[in-house]
Amino acid sequence: MGFNAKVVVTFTAAILLLIFSFLLFVHHSGYEKPIPLYTKTQPTIGSSQAKVHVVSFEDPKCNNCIVYHNQDYKKLYSSYIKTGMIRYTVYLVGELPNSSIICAALLCANEQSTPSFFQLLDAYYKNPILALTPETIRNELLTIAQNAALPIDFTSLQRCVSSATFDKQVLENTNYARDIMGGVIKTPTVFVNGIRLVRPSYDQLTTLIDIELKKGSS
Amino acid sequence: MKCAKIYLYLAWLLACIMTLGSLYVSLVTHREPCTLCWYQRICTFPLTIFLAVALYKNFLAVLPYVALFPLGGLLISSFHIALQEIPGFRPFKVCSSSVSCAIKEAIGLGPITPPMLTFLGSFLILLFLVLSARCYRRSR
User: Fold this and answer.
1) Smallest CA–CA separation between B123 and chain A, in Å?
2) Are residues A110 and A152 in the same domain?
3) CA distances (Å), origin B5, targets A32, A54, B52, B66
4) I need a labelling partner for A23 at 20 to 30 A (CA). Which of A9, A104, A141, A147 fits?
5) Same structural domain, A101 and A18
6) Which of B98, B103, B113 has the most A C-beta neighbours within 10 Å, making it the best mutation to test the interface with A?
């Protein structure tokens, strides 16, 4: 029996396209059910009266988080957070190598004041650290904080960064993220009033925020 | 001739899986590919067309030229892996600052990163193409 290449190629291509279309359809249809999130100890900005709470799980060393923060978060900040329409929480997770060190250091800024945390986060994402040893990472982050001229006590920040003050919280954050994401951490994952969006585009994110805002006002 | 076609079919199938997998990751998980990832895609995506045409038209003489694509994928992915795995290895600047090539992306496969998958896929495609070319030469 010969190998009929035309038939086999056509059949295989059809099967592959069918599977691909099915997977795209499954992952693009509808929103998931909202889940309650524990955000009490996490850095949060925006109006406490806001009807919509956006929670973003980010790994500071993930490429998509860098792009998300530098582009989408910036737009969200000026259109929704600053205007008091939403409350925004950042959940730092340390899944990628060395990112837990950065998370712990960033949370040190939050210990002093939440706006400083967000300022430092902005400065970090503008100039992400590629260093590979814990010591150089900590030093680079302190340099970023110094250059950003944050209104914080730098000596306390230095002390906090070099100690393991927030290591436990980062570990807890990471385990929590793994639990609610079904074992595999995907970042950035954004929850809008508990509804999950995995690596959403700005349009997807604002569409859901607008839906939730409408629900809140009706 | 039959074994040449079967190996070519396997190479095409692998190229299709790599292409669709890469598109799936982009479309569903909204990952931004880095510069080196784009170069690796350039070495993979055209294979789905070229190899399908070669199979359809029974035009197996094209194999040595098509093999340059997985060879390119193999070299670029090796460089990408080295960039991610060897501390301080950055012989020249290839990536934009917004999406770094040196940062490892977790794709739910443990320590396996996208360039590692490209390396494996390109290697297998190259292997199938070589085997296909050998069968083709023997059959002539």
Assistant:
1) 22
2) yes
3) 45, 54, 11, 15
4) A9
5) no
6) B103
- For residues A80 and A164, membership in a common domain is answered with yes
pTM: 0.60
Which amino acid is residue B67, in one-letter code? Answer: A
* Residue A205 lies inside a defined structural domain of this protein: yes
Nearest neighbour of A63 by CB, restricted to B13, B16, B32: B32
Q: Does residue A35 lie in a domain region?
A: no
Q: Which residues of A touch B13 (CB under 8 A)?
A: 12
Average pLDDT over chain B reads 86
Whether A38 maps to a domain, the answer reads: no
Rounded CA-CA distance A117/B57 in Å is: 62
Question: Is residue A154 assigned to a domain?
Answer: yes
Nearest CB to A9 within list B55, B102, B104: B55
Q: Give the nearest partner residue to B30 out of A8, A24, A64, using CB atoms.
A: A64
Rounded Cα distance, A177 and A187, in Å = 10
Helix (H) or strand (E) holding A191: strand A189-192
Structural domain range at position A7:
1-30
Residues whose CB falls within 8 Å of the CB of residue A79, separated by 6 or more in sequence, listed in order: A85, A206
Q: What is the DSSP string of B72-101?
A: HHHHHHHHHHHHHHSTT--SS--S-SSS-S
Residue A147 has pLDDT above 90, yes or no: no
Contacts of A42 (CB under 8 A, 6+ apart): A55, A89, A90, A91, A173
Q: Give A-chain residues touching B23 at CB under 8 angstroms.
A: 20
Q: A7 to chain B nearest CA, in Å?
A: 9
Chain A, chain B: beta-carbon pairs less than 8 Å apart: 86
* Residues B16 and A13 sit within 8 Å (Cβ to Cβ): yes
Distance from CA of B1 to the nearest CA of A (A): 9
CA A99/CA B88 separation, integer angstroms: 17
pLDDT in tens, A84-134: 999 999 999 998 888 888 999 899 999 888 999 999 999 999 988 776 788
Is A184 in the same domain as A207? Answer: yes
CB A212 within 8 A of CB A85: no
